[in-house]
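Q: Here's a chain of 115 amino acids. Please give me its 3D structure as tokens.
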Amino acid sequence: MNFIISHDPRARFRFAALQSPAGKELQCTYGLDPSALDTLILIEYGRVYTRSTAALRIARRLSGAWPLLGSLILVPRPVRDFLYDQFAGNRYRWFGKREDCMTPGAELRERFLLD
């Protein structure tokens, strides 16, 4: 989330914790498994994308060189999802984990779906 926020200067993306009322409502609306709390989910134009597909569709709309990753969508999904799972499983070991959660300021609060 922090990465997306820092690379999304046009504020295209909104966020909801999957455990929040807004997150639970979206999961119910789109028929998602409410126990799957460890995956990336993108809802775009009424369609649901998860894992590598969600990550690549997000990358296409970020600033900088990140949209170039969007071409990886041509790689078969099972291969992409395997690589996504490897990255997700090791990201804290490779990049560290913050001990505190980000508290959004007033300018970022609008980007979070709370109810």
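Q: Can you summarize the key feature?
A: The chain has one domain: 2-97.
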